[in-house]
Design goal:
Elements (H helix, E strand, L loop, with lengths): L16 H30 L7 H44 L10 H11 L9 H29 L3 H16 L7 E2 L5 E2 L1 H27 L4 E6 L6 H6 L3 E3 L10 H7 L8 E5 L6 H9 L8 H18 L4 H21 L4 H6 L3 H10 L3 E4 L7 E3 L2 E4 L4 H9 L23 H26 L7 H8 L6 H27 L14 H98 L1
Parallel strand pairs: 6-8
Antiparallel strand pairs: 1-2, 3-4, 3-5, 7-8
Length: 612
């Protein structure tokens, strides 16, 4: 909501109201469970056996404490559901208020962190603060009764049987007094149990809602919120802080932080104050005015109220009002707010316009009254600082009591504000998925190339061992060419992987209007096409690698075939020569044998001749 359009503090409908229905149901369930448990505790007290014995008392008191602990445990189950619902609602509201932007997504771990935040004592039930004190109060009352009876017994000489009876009678009287089963806070105030449980449920859920709202805005880069209220700001601190712009974290000009607002007392138990997103463009005038307004002691409610009023008067004067008119406009705005939040009157602005300058001046001097609707048979009237208005006829009642009649003031018609542009980032999300897929395909292709052994690597070993004996120059040339193509395929695939960078998508300027939306969608589509192209380059490189590897394997195979042929021919030639040499040797052996035979014959002839 644009700050300059606000009458007083820029208030709008408070989304905390969405939690009220859940809290009402939760509170009723808690109260019903508490009543059933208290009835059970009272039953144990009424049926206690031998209450005068210390052991019986210790056992009963332990059972009572255990029953209260179970109440706390059961209550925490409801409160955890409230925390989860409040955290989700706060995060969702932050996205809606920030123009429908898709903020940081919800995760269940976030809910657990909020539960630990509101319940910092590890292992301790959140509701145990409530039930522990109730258990202590109940047991203390029972012990006090025992002491009273024992004192009487010492004086009157009561029998043990009479002591049992007297203690039970005293305890039964105690169970009829609900004050013995009420929560007592640190200040000594006794709470109505239903009211306390309602306050516990509401305060816990609303605290988580506000923190989740601020956290989701901060995590998404937004820095400012404005304090708003749905219900009656009956606390002077809350009234003073209405419309104040705060930083979620860090400093900015003279703006307070939300921590300073909390420390000042805003968001107290049962507080209906919330916060709303501040658009740094639409709310620029209000931001600048509050940044430049002097800071004050933020824990001084009067100083904060004076600062808030001063800025409101400045806005009214900027509309052409003089000092008196601006003062009246401010007071009317406050009355309008009180009538709207306390009496729920739809025409509260018209009624506020009916107050005269004298009446407004009286309110400024004596303080604004509280407005309340009558209950039951209560009659309209003024009681101290509260004006009680007839519930059935509020306008007539205001006229009778204060002489005020609604006056409608037609506001000047302003041209309708152009619909706020909501950027569509779906193209970017789609591009992120597609680019990631393309990158994975390119990486897979590069990995396949690197993981495959290449036959061309063995050609160098063959060449070193056999080139002097076998001529396979052509095969070596073919393998070397294949190796070159293989190296190029690896380089091309690596370049394709390096060219796909999903981080480049973050540099695409986000759309701010229809024209830039089209450009944004086009750039996202171009990023997808470029990544797909690089993935195809990697796939082509993988195919080129496979073809070159095949050529290299063929060349190596051909070289090995030549070597085998050389080996075969060399062995055949050697075998033939060996066979020839063997034959020659055989032939020589045969000739030698024949010669020996001839020699033998000659010697024999020579012997015969010699004999003659």
């Amino acid at each position: 909501m644009k700050s300059s359009d606000a009458k007083y503090g820029g208030r709008s409908a408070n989304p905390l109201a969405a939690l009220e229905k859940r809290q009402y149901v939760t509170s009723k369930a808690l109260v019903r469970g508490l009543k059933e448990s208290l009835d059970a505790i009272k039953g144990k007290i009424a049926t206690a056996k031998t209450p005068a014995f210390a052991e019986s008392q210790r056992k009963l008191f332990a059972e009572i404490s255990a029953s209260y602990a179970e109440i706390a445990k059961s209550a925490d189950k409801y409160l955890k559901d409230e925390v989860s619902a409040a955290a989700k609602l706060g995060g969702k509201a932050a996205g809606i208020d920030a123009g429908g932007q898709d903020l940081v997504r919800w995760d269940e771990a976030r809910c657990r962190r909020y539960w630990m935040y509101v319940n910092p004592q590890a292992g301790k039930n959140l509701a145990a603060v409530f039930t522990d004190k109730m258990a202590e109060s109940t047991v203390t009352a029972l012990r006090r009764s025992v002491v009273e009876v024992q004192r009487r017994a010492a004086i009157e000489g009561m029998s043990l049987k009479d002591q049992h009876k007297a203690i039970l009678e005293s305890w039964n009287a105690l169970t009829g007094d609900d004050s013995n089963f009420q929560f007592i806070d640190r200040s000594g105030k006794a709470w109505d149990n239903a009211r306390y449980l309602q306050m516990l449920s509401r305060t816990t859920a609303q605290r988580v809602y506000r923190d989740a709202y601020a956290d989701r805005l901060a995590e998404s880069g937004f820095k400012l919120v404005r304090i708003t209220s749905l219900g009656a700001a009956d606390c002077p601190v809350c009234r003073a802080w209405q419309g104040v712009i705060c930083t979620i974290a860090g400093t900015q000009g003279n703006l307070p932080t939300i921590d300073q607002a909390r420390e000042a007392g805003v968001w107290h138990p049962n507080c209906m104050c919330s916060m709303e997103y501040v658009d740094e463009e639409l709310d620029a005038d209000d931001i600048e005015a509050q940044e430049k307004t002097d800071a004050v002691d933020w824990e001084d409610g009067d100083a904060v109220q004076e600062r808030t009023d001063g800025m409101a008067i400045g806005r009214f004067k900027a509309q052409g009002m003089d000092d008196a008119e601006a003062e009246d406009a401010l007071t009317r705005a406050k009355i309008e707010e009180a009538l709207r939040t306390e009496l729920f009157l739809e025409n509260s602005g018209d009624i506020a316009n009916g107050f005269s300058h004298e009446q407004l001046d009286g309110f400024r001097k004596n303080g604004l009254p509280d407005f309340a609707l009558t209950k039951g048979k209560q009659k309209p009237g003024i009681d101290g600082g509260t004006i009680y208005i007839d519930r059935a006829h509020p306008e007539e009642s205001l006229h009778d009591l204060l002489g005020v009649k609604a006056v409608r003031v037609e506001a000047p018609q302003e041209p309708p504000e152009a619909p706020r542009f909501a950027p569509d980032l779906s193209a970017l999300e789609h591009a992120k998925v597609k680019v990631a897929e393309a990158l994975q395909r390119a990486k897979s292709a590069l990995a396949d190339i690197g993981a495959t052994p290449v036959g061309a690597d063995s050609i160098d070993t063959l060449k070193a061992e056999w080139s002097s004996l076998v001529d396979f120059t052509a095969e070596v040339a073919a393998a070397d060419k294949a190796k070159g193509l293989i190296d190029k395929a690896k380089t091309d695939a690596g370049a394709a992987v390096a060219a796909i960078d999903p981080a480049d998508l973050d540099s695409i300027a986000r759309p701010t209007d229809e024209a830039s939306q089209k450009a944004f969608d086009t750039k996202c589509a171009a990023a997808i096409a470029a990544a797909e192209g690089r993935a195809k380059d990697a796939a082509d490189a993988k195919k080129s690698f496979a073809d070159a590897k095949h050529d290299a394997d063929v060349a190596v195979s051909a070289a090995k075939t030549k070597i085998e042929a050389f080996k075969t021919s060399t062995v055949a030639a050697a075998t033939s020569e060996a066979d020839g040499a063997t034959q020659d040797a055989t032939d020589l052996h045969d000739l030698s044998k024949a010669a020996r035979n001839e020699i033998g014959k000659l010697k024999k002839s020579a012997g015969l001749i010699k004999g003659y």
